[in-house]
Amino acid sequence: MNIILFGPPAAGKGTQAKRLVTEFGFIQLSTGDMLRAARSAGTELGQRVANIMDSGQLVSDEIVIELIEEQLDTHKGAPGFIFDGFPRTVPQAEALDATLKSRGMEVDAVIRLQVDEDSLLDRVTKRFEEQGRDDDNPETFKKRLDAYNAQTAPLLPIYAERQKLAQVDGMRSIEEVSAEIDSVLAKLEGKEKKGFFSKIFGGSN
User: Fold this and answer.
1) What is the dihedral of CA 31, 197, 109, 148, to 10 degrees?
2) Could you tell me the pLDDT band of residue 192, with boundaries at 50, 70 and 90?
3) Tens digits of per-residue pLDDT, 82-126?
4) Which of 91, 111, 120, 127 has the maximal Cβ count within 10 Å?
5) Cβ atoms within 10 A of the Cβ of 46, count?
6) Is 88 annotated as a binding residue?
7) Structural domain includes residue 97
């Protein structure tokens, strides 16, 4: 089972991803985490990543795909993967599709956390004023939000056309969002992943 979590910064993707990892044993593939892990590992690929990052350049999509392939092959027995931070563009989505297809896999569900962006900005601004965290700087956050909207918007209709896209109200409580996500996954039961979901959710319909 392969899931993509979509949502702007501060929408709660990280919280939900960690829950799915803890409760269901998914493997979370976060672009940032993979890059840091590769660099620390000191492998040939990790050295390439380190050289690129040290030179101030952006790591190419090809290298990110290599990192994803490495993780897919390392965790072949995992019940599922969560893609966090990738794909962000149409070419990246196409590359991910090709990588999964070559392994007899596909994106099973794209879960979008729908949030009110003005409320998010207010939340971040208040937190910045109270705690002074650099990553909560409202101006920086707004730029990240604009980038998310510009890059991600073209992907949503693609996955919607494939009937992969599920919309979840990200403004509700963590527990309610969790329940909505679990409901999305449970509704996939009865399709090609029936055995997987029967095991997780306790029986089939």
Assistant:
1) -40
2) very low
3) 998 889 888 999 999 999 999 999 999 999 999 999 988 888 888
4) 111
5) 18
6) yes
7) yes
Instruction: Tally the domains of the chain.
Output: 1
156: tokens are: 């949503």
* Catalytic-residue membership of 144: yes
Q: Which of 13, 39, 112, 193 is catalytic?
A: 13
* In a domain? residue 17: yes
CATH value at residue 183: 3.40.50.300
Q: At what angle do helices 44-54 and 31-41 cross, to 10 degrees?
A: 110
Domain presence at residue 202: no
Annotated ligand binding at 172? The verdict is yes
State the average pLDDT over residues 3-23: 91
Task: Identify whether 13 is a catalytic site residue.
Answer: yes
Q: Is 88 a catalytic residue?
A: yes
Q: CA-CA distance, 140 to 156, in Å (whole number)? A: 24
Closest Cα partner for 186 from 199, 169, 168, 175? Answer: 199
For residue 19, give its domain range.
2-195
Does the active-site annotation cover 127? yes
Q: Confirm whether 48 is a catalytic residue.
A: no
